[in-house]
Design a protein that fits this description.
This protein has 276 residues and is mainly beta. The chain folds into 2 domains: 111 residues, Porin (Beta Barrel), CATH 2.40.160.210; 139 residues, Acyl-CoA thioesterase, double hotdog domain (Porin), CATH 2.40.160.210. 14% of the residues lie in helices and 39% in strands. It contains 5 helices and 15 strands. Strands 1, 2, 5, 6, 7, 8, 9, 10, 11, 12, 13, 14 and 15 form a 13-stranded antiparallel sheet that branches. It is globular and about 55 Å long. The termini are far apart. 34% of the residues are buried. This is Acyl-CoA thioesterase. Pfam families: 4HBT_3, 4HBT_3C.
């Protein structure tokens, strides 16, 4: 069976240097202008915890901080369980690459919380917004040259698509769309992590102006367990993203992800820098 391109991008080798030390390589299939797609990087950080031999439970929270540009090529990951309780586990993850002098250079850091879930009272207070079925929504055309990762996804914008005219007349920052892997792949925590970062910068939509922008830090909260993700399978995910404040070179970006059946799968918040 041919390995899915996303799984190739997530491939890690567990080295014998120390427990929790992994090596990997950036993927040209998920390249984004000057570096890897941030969603894939976040998924790789999570993957190091999911493959750790001491893992307890499943992820409930992931925060990724993009400290420096990631160069094309090899990288090292160190995942460390800093505290294990009866039902929760707290992790730190660090990605490094060799600098010009050969010394390791930190590019990305992360914290992860995993937990053993139990059956309790549950309620979704953030229902999925009404939308036409995916088949009735036009598929977005391929992204700009040099942005390979966009081609790895099928995206069907319902509202707030990338502006067709960049004339500075934007009026809102909300996007809603259906999305899934272009080559069918069953949804899991790594894929959900990447999807939580699939929305283009809100400042582009709000201003209808292209300006340099990039994520500084993103936190994703997982509300579904593995069985609920398995039920989604290769189906579509509904995504919604909007900003709340643009101020002095930074803005926030909040997102929610639902299954076609309306189950809230994950929410995310990120802080993004932008330039005039």
């Amino acid at each position: 069976m041919t390995k899915h391109v996303f799984d190739k991008a997530l491939a890690l080798a567990h080295s014998d240097i120390r427990v929790g030390h992994f090596t990997g390589m950036t993927s040209p299939d998920y390249w984004n202008m000057v570096g890897p797609f941030g969603g894939t990087t976040a998924a790789v950080m999570l993957q190091s915890v999911l493959q750790h031999p001491d893992l307890l439970g499943a992820p409930i929270a992931l925060t990724v901080n993009y400290a420096a540009a990631i160069e094309a090529g090899n990288f090292d990951l160190q995942a460390t369980a800093v505290r294990t309780n009866r039902s929760t586990q707290h992790w730190t993850v660090q990605m490094t690459q060799a600098g010009a002098d050969g010394a390791p250079r930190v590019t990305t850091t992360a914290t992860v919380v995993t937990a053993v879930r139990r059956d309790t009272w549950s309620q979704n207070d953030t229902p999925m917004p009404p939308a036409s079925p995916p088949a009735e929504v036009a598929r977005m055309e391929a992204g700009p040259r040099g942005v390979a990762w966009v081609g790895q996804y099928e995206m069907r914008p319902i509202h707030g698509a990338v502006p067709s005219v960049w004339d500075g007349t934007g009026t809102h920052s909300e996007t809603r769309l259906w999305m899934r892997d272009a080559v069918p792949r069953a949804l899991d925590f790594a894929a959900l992590t990447a999807m939580s970062d699939m929305f283009f910068p809100r400042v582009w939509l709000r201003r209808a102006t292209v300006v340099p922008a990039g994520t500084v830090s993103i936190t994703t909260y997982f509300h579904a367990d593995a069985a609920q993700l398995c039920a989604v399978g290769t189906g579509y995910v509904m995504g919604r993203a909007s900003a709340q404040q643009f101020c002095n070179g930074f803005f926030d970006q909040a997102a929610q992800l639902w299954s076609e059946a309306g189950a809230l799968l994950a929410t995310s918040n990120q802080i993004v820098y932008f330039k005039e």
